[in-house]
Design brief:
heterodimer, A: mainly alpha, 9 helices, 0% strand, globular, disordered N terminus, B: mainly alpha, disordered C terminus
Chain lengths: 193, 346
């Protein structure tokens, strides 16, 4: 239990893989400004992470390890993620037809989203059981959603202020990601996974 | 619509900023005098250097952005940033460290984000965190306080000044500098010593470290005066202190051997300075009353978390930046109707 709590809290708070290791640079830059859009992306990405991580873990644990073909793990995880994105995409379109346009634009981005792949691969190294892999995935999905919402709100704010022309858009977003990483530096050492 | 209300209230703060910021600077005077009494003239030298750099960078950045330089300099925000940077840095700091902190505070954290009134992050804390992470060695030279039985080897004004300019001390560092109370507790706990053992050291006072707790008193005094002058409102200071005290009290009650008491956390490091002077910066703080409580409490909890489990001895600057980045989201999520929106003004 203790270990699970450490995984849950540690992932959301400190070892913020999503931010800390610069995995999410792509969705940050690609996501359209706006909290509503951020919410859609984080729900869908979160679903994909929570589905693909345990699935990837199971395939690695029950298939690749017994057959001694662990070197296929990156490939297998990519296949699993692509499948999960298709499934989530289909289900979401059926349940919420109004999201059709948003999904068409975001689904391919999520499939190649480095955070999804990163979390799935890290879970193979860090988790010792399927439950741990699932909790790890949920924590990462939560952390990712929080980060994405925070970042979208900052970008919305920046759109309304007088940023010097050469720094508008992407440059100031990158600067902000840099200062955020500095701030997260303060949490270093809090949880060792 | 509400974004406009919030924006308007921030502009309002900016326009009346001159007098308000002079009052904030005045409220820091007692703490400055106490600081100089206990730790020598280093703070004054740092304030002078930081003011020169901040005003220079402010003038240059304003000029480059095509605005009126005298307007920008006359609202005193650059001076307040300079003073807060000087308070954050140790009394012995080489001039180029202070200059780097001012560069990142004024140019990066303030002017790249649209200048006074629209910055996301607290400029002084960005500047301090940059030099703290980049130059850990040069930002750790804390002095022992001037108090009876501590072998205080006080540096003269000339000695401090010569270190600040040349980076060389007349005597070895170990003879002059000393771990801060927070450092002592943190490293002592890692060596399996109990809090009681360390509280018995001559460095420790009634609540926090000796000298430090007196500075804390004077900071709180200035802060209460600001509250009575309605420059700052009660939400953020109270929330920050509650955020530190509640988890600290719980931890202390559960295991007093490995947890410093709540009083120690309140009077050590920069807790009180943060509660009254840093977190209350109206531009980078949340703008709604509920948002301010969430913002302040978050800062307090993060300060405690970083002190207890993190690798930095004090977490004030990191905690403030971490909550700064959540402010736009907090504001968006705690937005209220226009009728309530008026409460937003500081």
């Amino acid at each position: 239990m203790n270990e699970l709590l450490v995984i849950l809290l540690g992932t959301v708070l400190a070892n913020h893989y999503v931010q800390d290791r610069f995995l999410p640079l792509r969705p940050f830059a690609g996501a359209r400004a706006g909290m509503a859009s951020a919410l859609t992306v984080s729900v869908i990405t979160g679903l994909v992470i929570t589905l693909s991580t345990p699935a990837g873990y199971l395939i690695h644990d029950r298939l690749l390890v017994p057959l001694q073909v662990e070197y296929l793990r990156t490939l297998s995880v990519i296949v699993v993620i692509t499948l999960c994105v298709r499934i989530v995409d289909r289900v979401a379109r059926r349940l919420r037809p109004d999201l059709d346009e948003a999904l068409r634009c975001h689904s391919p981005l999520i499939a190649i989203n480095s955070a999804v792949l990163g979390v799935a691969l890290l879970a193979l190294q860090l988790a010792d059981s399927l439950t741990e892999a699932m909790l790890f995935a949920v924590a990462c999905a939560g952390g990712f959603a929080a980060m994405l919402t925070i970042f979208a709100a900052i970008r919305e704010h920046l759109a309304s202020v007088d940023v010097p022309t050469p720094f508008r858009g992407l440059p100031i977003a990158m600067m902000t990601a840099g200062i955020m990483s500095l701030a997260l530096f303060g949490l270093a050492g809090i949880v060792q996974l | 619509m509400n974004a406009i209300t919030l924006q308007a209230s921030r502009t309002h703060v900016k326009n009346t900023g001159g007098v308000a910021i002079l009052k904030v600077l005045a409220a820091l005077l007692p703490a400055t005098v106490a600081y100089v009494w206990f730790f020598g003239p280093g703070l004054l030298i740092n304030i002078a250097i930081a003011c020169v750099f901040c005003l220079l960078f402010e003038a240059a950045a304003t000029h480059l952005r095509g605005a009126r330089v005298d307007d920008a300099l006359s609202d005193y925000t650059a001076i307040l940033t300079a003073v807060l940077i000087a308070f954050a840095l140790p009394p012995l700091t080489p001039w180029w460290i202070t200059g780097t902190a001012c560069l990142f505070a004024i140019v990066v954290a303030k002017h790249l984000y649209g200048g006074a009134g629209s910055n996301v992050f607290n400029p002084a804390m960005v500047g301090y965190v940059v030099v703290l992470v980049a130059f850990p060695q040069d930002t750790s030279l804390w002095l022992p306080p001037r108090i009876g039985d501590i072998d205080y080897d006080g540096l003269s004004l000339i000695q401090t000044l010569s270190y600040t300019i040349t980076g060389n001390l007349p005597m070895p560092y170990d003879a002059v500098t000393r771990a801060t109370p927070l450092d002592t507790i943190q490293s002592g706990l890692k060596q399996m010593r109990t809090v009681d053992e360390m509280r018995a050291l001559p460095l420790m006072g009634d609540f926090g470290g000796r000298g430090w707790e007196w500075i804390g008193n004077f900071v709180a005094l200035g802060g209460l005066w600001l509250m009575s002058q309605r420059i700052i409102r009660w939400h953020i200071p109270i929330a920050v202190m509650a955020g530190v005290l509640i988890p600290a009290t719980i931890a202390f009650l559960v295991d007093p051997g490995t947890n410093a008491g709540p009083g120690f956390h309140l009077f050590s490091g920069a807790t009180l300075l943060c509660a009254f002077f840093i977190a209350t910066d109206p531009v980078s703080a949340a703008a709604t009353p509920t948002g301010r409580l969430v913002y302040g409490f978050g800062i307090g909890v993060l300060i405690f978390t970083i002190r207890k489990w993190g690798s930095y001895a004090d977490g004030v600057a990191f905690a403030v930046l971490l909550m700064n980045m959540a402010v736009p989201a907090i504001d968006a999520l705690t937005r209220v109707d226009n009728a309530d929106g008026r409460q937003v003004q500081v």
